[in-house]
């Protein structure tokens, strides 16, 4: 069942579990995410960045969502950078959009987010925005010092934009950390949870560590974005298959076998995180 992200996150926030939001881009990843969620009776949010074929992803999500009617899911544009891109996603059938104006000054972030919220809500679509800066894990040595989301600013931001959920910066970064251990600011996260009236989102979940992510959910995170751990699990599985020298009677490995090895590993990693976030059984 395809719904808005707002109602899913409100349930997660009130019952204290976190929803996995894997990055998807095609038929295989959408099917794998819904299959993992179905097997664990968990809700799932499909995140799709704007470089993908949004119309195809929306069509495929409707198709596979009908195949897994028991799974509550939302299709969310991840890191939409313009009003126009959010409009395109809504027109394609996304049930949620993220407008990421976090690089802009506060007032400009407020005004662009409020514009997108007005349009999206008129279409029955929910909106995620970001306040504070979630940096890059590759640059974590520098980005770890970037300021975490300020609670007072967050309250004002939500009030003035009417956004449905807020991505906050509390120490995670996008990508895989190399030789660095991310430090999550649980004190700040608890402060934010106390005063911000909408569900909170954590970007850059990959390679943060299961214990820290479980703790983030306990402290008030309702949605955790995942991409790098899923994608690299898939790539490593493909590398292992190719290195094994396995072949078929055709004398080569059909592309579908290679791709399936990757997607199976991607699906297993999603299932792992669903358990870590405590959302397994939430739909039971
Ligand atoms: Zn992100």
How would you summarize the topology of this molecule?
Blueprint: H1 5-15, E1 19-22, H2 27-39, E2 44-49, H3 54-67, E3 73-80, H4 83-92, E4 96-99, H5 106-122, E5 126-131, H6 140-143, H7 151-161, E6 165-168, H8 186-195, E7 200-202, H9 210-219, E8 221-226, H10 228-243, H11 255-276
Parallel strand pairs: 1-8, 2-3, 3-4, 4-5, 5-6, 6-7, 7-8
Helix pairs in contact: 2-3, 2-11, 4-5, 5-7, 7-8, 10-11
This protein binds zinc ion (ZN).
What does the model show?
The structure is a single chain. The protein has 284 residues and is of the alpha/beta class. Helices cover 49% and strands 14% of the residues. It is built from eleven helices and eight strands. It has helices at residues 5-15, 27-39, 54-67, 83-92, 106-122, 140-143, 151-161, 186-195, 210-219, 228-243, 255-276, and strands spanning 19-22, 44-49, 73-80, 96-99, 126-131, 165-168, 200-202, 221-226. It has an eight-stranded parallel sheet, with helices on both faces. The longest helix is centred in the C-terminal third of the chain and has 22 residues, at 255-276. The radius of gyration is 18 Å and the shape is globular. The site of zinc ion has 5 residues, from loops.
Strand order of the largest sheet: 1-8-7-6-5-4-3-2
Shape: globular
Radius of gyration: 18 Å
User: What is the CATH superfamily label?
Assistant: Aldolase class I
Secondary-structure element order, N to C:
HEHEHEHEHEHHEHEHEHH
Average of the residue pLDDT scores: 95
Distinct small-molecule ligands in the complex? zinc ion
CATH architecture: Alpha-Beta Barrel
Binned, the helix content reads 40-55%
Number of strands: 8
The termini sit apart by 14 Å
- How much strand content do the residues show? 5-15%
The major sheet is characterized as: 8 strands, parallel
Structural class by SSE content: alpha/beta
Low-confidence stretches: none
- In CATH, the topology is named TIM Barrel
Total helices: the number is 11
Instruction: Specify the CATH class.
Output: Alpha Beta
- The figure for the number of domains is 1
